[in-house]
């Protein structure tokens, strides 16, 4: 028989006193968190902010050429987990990550691994478009320059063009490459940030609510782009929009209070969720 606290957790998502004290044990994930062709493999990942545990033993794979969406109520740890995948949490004082995260079989938390080239291999697109205060050309050329990816100006020009083309922005900006990136519309700025990420040849692209600052038309363009990018990259996207998760992703992971509650084919998660908490969230009962 369930205890009162368990019933409360299942029905309201309320935290138990143990959870509030950061002592919770991870809940078993419903669904298969592995894939046959994993690009990244995360196992028993825990994240602590000082004494507070924000991610609670999460294991999941990100496959090649797939979009994985991460959904869940505010504060459940989606962004925290996403930031583990390219060690962005390293920049936060008091943040500690345990467990293992492999990229192509290599432990990204290995002490000998330099996080700077890692962040080129696992690029990130943020909620708010954040172009550098430089020209459109320089926004895209900056990464390849610091990583020494091209040998001369002609190669750099070609890389800038191909990155802007992949981001679906070339035709809109080819005649004004020397103008400020910050002068573009919000949707164009986000695509410029995607071009900047692509320019350094990532294997994985992390997106943290990439459309939340965009209007519906710009959102539709970025969503279409995400679908196209899947043929070349692995993509993990945090989104508050279940419609967006359903439109762009092949697999969906549902987080709740730092636990990965359920993971599976996006269609299955939205049409026949197996866990009560997932069902409550997608039917709008909480969150
Ligand atoms: N820098 C930080 N220092 C301390 N606690 C943090 C920090 N960042 C996040 N947290 C805490 O970790 C937990 C998870 O937060 P996170 O931002 O990852 O959740 P989220 O699911 O992405 O939320 P949202 O959907 O609102 O963006 C929350 O309890 C939050 O307060």
TrEMBL record:
Gene3D superfamilies: P-loop containing nucleotide triphosphate hydrolases
A GO BP annotation: phosphate ion transmembrane transport
Entry EC number(s): 3.6.3.27
SMART domains per UniProt: AAA (SM00382)
Keyword terms: ATP-binding, Hydrolase, Nucleotide-binding, Phosphate transport, Transport
One Gene Ontology cellular component: membrane
CDD domains with a match to the protein in the record: ABC_PstB_phosphate_transporter
Pfam assignment, any one: ABC_tran
Residue ranges of domain ABC transporter in the record: 40-282
InterPro entries named among the record's database cross-references: AAA+_ATPase, ABC_transporter-like_ATP-bd, ABC_transporter-like_CS, P-loop_NTPase, PstB-like
Transmembrane segments: none
Enzyme kind, highest EC tier: hydrolase
Molecular function in Gene Ontology: ATP binding; ATP hydrolysis activity; phosphate transmembrane transporter activity
Coiled-coil regions listed: none
Protein name: Phosphate ABC transporter, ATPase subunit
Naturally occurring in which organism (per UniProt): Thiorhodococcus drewsii AZ1
């Amino acid at each position: 028989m369930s205890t009162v606290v368990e019933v409360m957790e299942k029905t309201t998502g309320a935290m138990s006193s143990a959870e509030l004290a950061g002592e919770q044990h991870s809940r078993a994930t419903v669904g298969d968190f592995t894939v046959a062709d994993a690009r990244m493999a995360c196992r028993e990942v825990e994240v602590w902010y000082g004494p507070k545990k924000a991610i609670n033993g999460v294991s999941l794979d990100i496959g090649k050429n797939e979009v994985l969406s991460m959904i869940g109520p505010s504060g459940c740890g989606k962004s925290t987990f996403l930031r583990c995948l390219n060690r962005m949490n390293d920049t936060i004082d008091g943040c500690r990550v345990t467990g293992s995260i492999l990229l192509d079989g290599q432990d990204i938390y290995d002490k000998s691994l330099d996080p700077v080239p890692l962040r080129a291999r696992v690029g990130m697109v943020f909620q708010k478009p954040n172009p550098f205060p430089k020209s459109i050309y320089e926004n895209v050329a900056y990464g390849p320059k610091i990583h020494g990816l091209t040998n001369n100006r002609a190669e750099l020009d070609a890389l800038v063009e191909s990155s802007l083309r992949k981001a679906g922005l070339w035709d809109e900006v080819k005649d004004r490459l020397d103008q400020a990136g910050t002068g573009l519309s919000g949707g164009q700025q986000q695509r410029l940030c995607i071009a900047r990420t692509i320019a350094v040849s990532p294997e994985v692209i992390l997106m943290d609510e990439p459309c939340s600052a965009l209007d519906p038309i710009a959102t539709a363009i970025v969503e279409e782009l995400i679908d196209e990018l899947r043929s070349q990259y692995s993509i993990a996207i945090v989104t508050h929009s279940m419609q967006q998760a359903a439109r762009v992703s092949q697999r969906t992971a549902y987080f709740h209070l730092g636990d990965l509650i359920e993971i599976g084919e996006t269609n299955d998660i939205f049409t026949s969720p197996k866990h009560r908490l997932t069902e409550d969230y997608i039917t709008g009962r909480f969150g």
